[in-house]
TrEMBL record:
Signal peptide: none annotated. Gene3D superfamilies: Vaccinia Virus protein VP39. GO terms for molecular function: N-methyltransferase activity; nucleic acid binding; S-adenosylmethionine-dependent methyltransferase activity. The keyword DNA damage does not apply. GO terms for biological process: methylation. It comes from Martelella mediterranea DSM 17316. Keywords: Methyltransferase, S-adenosyl-L-methionine, Transferase. This is N5-glutamine S-adenosyl-L-methionine-dependent methyltransferase.
Amino acid sequence: MTAEASTVDAFHRGRFHLVQPKGRGHRAGMDAMLLAAMVESKAARGEKGLRIADLGAGAGAAGFAVAARIPEAEVSLFELSPEMADFARRSMALAENAAFNARMKVFEADVTLTGARRNAAGLADDAFDHVIMNPPFNAAGDRKTPDRLKQVAHAMEEGLFEAWIRTAGAILKPGGQLSLIARPQSLADIIAAFGMRFGGIEITPVHARAGEDAFRVLASAIKGSRARLSLRPPIIMHGSDGHAFLPEVDDLNNGRSCYPRRQTGKTG
């Protein structure tokens, strides 16, 4: 792979760097940073250990953002594409990421696997405290890109949320948290896939500006919880004038704050 085929990009004001494909494939942005912000440190509650699984990790932006912000986080990146997994490994090798790269692992794995094959791929049952995911979001009828690497990252297959959330339910510890970011059009499929596996669902719509339709939703849920669904106040990214992020969104985007759950999500 030539140097021209990739770029090294700084995130969180230089706290971590990411090797990404240049001119093709999926390049990380705000979605990955919002997803990473949904992971809360357990140290503030006096708890030790925080094992994170990033499903469909791509080059690893969300997982790297978690590892860079939370000192106790151990992050496993699961990615189907060997090429994108290689970008994540190259990022781990960067000197700029030396402070936390020992707490990260990369697995080439199909997150839709089941049973023993899933366990053999590194997706072990009841092993993780928090699962994060940013699944492909383009519907089958959307115009397909000629970029094969991008198409794999963006193309939604039928039953995708059911398969990915089934895996999350298997690999999370009881009481563990699943967090994801998706298009609002997928909300019904997401809630249906949570089913009896998850409860305490929290939904947050994300709007570019006040008065505009939401273009993303953040969703979180707790394995085994029976708490009711909660619709949280929206996140508004920009003011009425200009394209700068509002201060609270800029803090999320740059790892200065997190977006914790409001419910405890206790099981039982």
